[in-house]
Write a structure and sequence with these properties.
Oligomer: single chain
Helix content: 40-55%
Order of helices and strands: HEHEEEEHEEHEHEEHHHEHEHHHHHHHH
Number of helices: 17
Number of strands: 12
CATH class of the largest domain: Alpha Beta
Strand content: 5-15%
CATH architecture of the largest domain: Alpha-Beta Complex
Distance between the termini: 93 Å
Radius of gyration: 35 Å
């Protein structure tokens, strides 16, 4: 494990981090002595935030996918696979994409318990989340349980709604870089480092000599630029003024205090958040479908028929009407073409919406059927005019047929006697008859 320390040190010292101060203190206290050889213990970065091996995408009965964002966040973690508590941005992005793309998922909840981590890869992940939201149009909530700090809060800010538990912490909107001056320790250890290099700034900021002003200014400029990008991201996602975000001064807010600075929207438990999100998407979908059904059910059939055949040459009829009957009734169809056209567009929109709703429901049935080993072709079903209920019956019939087939196979395991006698059998039977006689 000690062979991994140089890799970890390179990611902590001299590199900008979006990491909460307590976690940074832990890293510095753990890494510092080990880099100088003071201790021989192995290193674990995860602590209480380390995710278990069984953490994976979960989908509730309401169609809410729960995506875990746990532990210290890094650009990639392949070479640190043996360490606990590290989650890569690539892994988080893949899980979020899986959730959005799953047809059985109606909404996504990011369950976050992270102190933040590296800068590299964070903004690319946030861009990916924004693109997935636009592509799939599914609600995205973030739950801080028990912390969404620094880089983790940047991820949470992409959500439509941020909620946190009573004791959860969020915020720490800031960037930090650490330089360790080991020159004093080197001197005490009798070590003298000599760098032979080309390029005036090649060894700026190295740990074996005090930090030069030029190196400090360059690191500060890098930190300031990343901080500005962080502030702009939160400002855009949360609808806040940049000055408001900067005004937090990288402060950390617990529970209800986060609502006062508008970094969160509600305080609730994990169970309540899941129920609220599931209920919102279910009620919205049901109400949406009910409204469309009621409007179509209450529509005047004669009016719908007239609107459906609006392409007939009705505009030619009004000129002949006054000659046949001067009454004011005949001109009415010609006087209201625009309302009928508007009504026709509304009817077509309703029909299109019902088709989309049917397709979405049938896609969910097909996805659920696939888990049971039954394959359904949604496009073919729609071409045949099948409805979701018919698809459900087809799945049940298929499963019932398989159950019956299994029973038949199980009952017919023993071979039955042949109905055609062999010559040997015939001779044996004849001999038995003769002995009886």
């Amino acid at each position: 494990m000690m062979n991994d320390l140089p890799h970890i040190a390179a990611r902590v010292f001299g590199a900008p981090l979006m990491l909460a101060r307590p976690k940074l203190d832990v890293l510095l206290s753990v890494l510092g002595p080990r880099l100088t050889g003071a201790y021989g213990e192995t290193l674990a970065l995860g602590g209480e935030n380390a995710p278990g091996d069984d953490e994976d995408l979960q989908i509730t009965s309401d169609g809410v996918a729960v995506v875990p964002v746990f532990g210290t966040l890094v650009t990639r973690s392949s070479y640190l696979a043996a360490l606990s508590g590290l989650t890569s941005y690539a892994e988080v992005g893949q899980n979020i994409e899986r959730a959005f793309a799953d047809p059985s998922v109606r909404a996504v909840l990011l369950e976050i318990d992270s102190p933040g981590g590296e800068v590299g890869g964070l903004f690319d992940l946030c861009d990916k989340i924004a693109a997935l939201k636009t592509q799939y149009g599914k609600p995205l909530w973030a739950l801080a349980h028990e912390g969404a700090l620094s880089a983790a809060y940047a991820i949470a800010s992409n959500a439509d709604k941020i909620v946190l538990t009573q004791t959860a912490e969020i915020g720490s909107i800031g960037v930090v870089a650490v330089h360790v001056d080991e020159s004093g320790a080197d001197e005490q250890a009798g070590l003298a480092w000599n760098f032979i290099y080309a390029g005036e700034r090649k060894v700026d900021g190295n740990p074996h000599e005090p930090l030069a002003n030029r190196a400090r200014e360059e690191i500060q400029a890098d930190v300031d630029g990343l901080y500005a990008a962080f502030v702009a991201l939160v400002s855009k996602n949360r609808g806040l003024q940049a000055e408001t975000v900067r005004g937090t001064e990288a402060g950390v807010y617990r529970g209800a205090s986060a609502l006062d600075v508008r970094l969160a929207d509600a305080v609730m438990s994990r169970e309540t958040a899941l129920a609220a999100l599931g209920s919102s998407v279910t009620s919205t979908f049901s109400q949406f479908s009910t409204n469309r059904k009621d409007k179509l059910m209450n529509a005047d059939p004669q009016k719908i028929e007239a609107q459906t055949h609006v392409e007939t040459p009705q505009p030619e009829q009004p000129p002949a009407a006054p000659a046949a009957d001067p009454a004011p009734t005949p001109p009415q169809p010609a006087a209201e073409p625009a309302p009928e056209t508007a009504d026709q567009a509304a009817i077509e929109a309703k029909v299109s919406q019902k088709v989309r709703e049917s397709y979405a429901e049938m896609a969910q049935i097909a996805a659920q059927a696939a888990r049971l080993g039954v394959t359904l072709d949604v496009a073919e079903a729609m071409a045949k005019g099948l409805k979701p209920d018919a698809m459900r019956r087809a799945v049940l019939d298929e499963l019932a047929a398989r159950s019956n087939a299994t029973g038949v196979v199980a009952a017919a395991t023993a071979p039955t006697a042949t109905t055609v006698d062999s010559p040997i059998v015939r001779r044996a039977r004849a001999a038995a008859e003769k002995s009886k006689a």
